[in-house]
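ENTRY TYPE: protein
WANTED: fold as tokens:
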Amino acid sequence: MQQDGWRPQAAADRNLLDLRLDHRDVRLSFNALQQSARDPQGLSRAQWDQAPLSTSVQALSFNTRKKTDQWQLGASWSVGNAWFGQREVRQWQSIPVNLQAVESHPGGVIDLARNFAGLDVRTRSTIGSSTAVFGLAVEGQWDQRKGFENFIGSQLGLTGALRRDESNQALGLDFYAQLRQPLNVSTTLHAGLRVSRLQMRNQDQFLGNGDDSGLRHFSTLSPILGLTHRLSGGWHLYANAGSAHETPTLNELAYGSDGSSGLNSTLQAQHSGQLEIGVRCNGLELSALTARSRNEIIALGSVGGRARFGNADGIRRAGAELSWQQNINAAWDLQLALTALHARLSDGSVLPGAPQQQVLAALGWQAAGWRAQVKLQAQSELWADASNAAPGFGLMSFALQHEGRNTSGPWHLRLALDNLFDRRHAASVIVAERNGRFLEPGAPRRLQLGFSQGFR
């Protein structure tokens, strides 16, 4: 894939290779990725209002870009799966030269080399009407992380002097169990439990800006319990309750919460408890959920180029979702999804990065190998922080496709028009973007044509 992009400094290319071999109950898979992309960065609200498809001056002057190379080999069989691979990432950022010159700064170029591997094995047993699954998962990640200045002399966008050199390691061990137990002819109990142990280690080999070495251990316990109940007329009721934990990443642990040297010793694992209830029948589903978190991991800011993270309590989420799929007749079908979310921080402000309302509606038609669909997608404003938000939008799209078969095999033709009325919109936001360039413009009207031919 190659594209010029719809903004300056937005060109990208990607090469993919996927191979798969099946033999009896064993599947081997290999995939490789080579990808490079320019980075047009976000825009401030004023820049977006004036020129929504423009690019920041900083992106152009520092030639912001990213390159990724990855390969992975995996195997799966009846009682488990295993994988290992490598990933290399280089990213050139637009950090001002005077900030990169600060002694503690890790530089404007990220250079990461990662090895990763994992094994997940499980066993299933059935006793009477009960079905139980017990499993063990082991996973490891080993990083060599370097940082360089993104300039040489007065020339920007070039890999300069070394500013960071460290080894990161993450090792995880998980035990899990699942149970399905019918209570009677109409009600079934589902239960699950996961016990996790994680070790994260950092060995700093560049001590000119302080020693960021350190070791952290995390232990978590995540239970879940659910009930489904079948009613007459095809209706089903369900309820799920559980808790989940999210441990910090190596990036979030990299520096102390005050920006000092050393692995973050105060950052805790995030814990959340949630409850969901719902009903579904013949393509119609209505559900409601509520969740509350403790020690939620949030960005505190940046000191001298060192991103800092901490914990916050009292973040609440409550929402409801309605989805409906209906075949009107043999030719026409309708899809509808409505989502409402009330997500607030402890001070009452809206949780960044989460739209409060979303709508998806699609009307489809099919006959004699043809299929057409008109779709509407809309969402409310999207907050990046307490004072900046991307406005809400509504987009229409149209797709037409046809399938057939010739002497060589099956073929498929597709035409699609996205953002049919060429609406200006922000596809996403950069949460807590300290330079005010938090808006990431969405694509203008796009035409896509595709054709595929299979061969016997």
Q: What stands out?
A: The chain has one domain: 2-453. Helices lie at 45-50, 57-61, 97-100, 250-253. The radius of gyration is 25 Å.
